[in-house]
Amino acid sequence: MTAIPEFEFRTSSACKYNNNDPRCVEVATNVPGKVAVRSSVNGGTVEFSAEEWNDFLSGAKLGEFDVAA
What we know:
Elements: E1 10-11, E2 25-28, E3 34-39, E4 45-49, H1 50-61
Antiparallel strand pairs: 1-2, 2-3, 3-4
């Protein structure tokens, strides 16, 4: 039986982690075919397929998710 690897989360270098306000998004890409994203505040985790994650990143780079002021 093959062991299922655990996600190894990392925080973006753009995150300004502050012990008084620890709000950062953490991402794990070490499990083949999967990407996990979690909140550093509550530890809630969401999993995506690698294809879903790539589609999201492409949309984000094109401004698809920009919030209008």
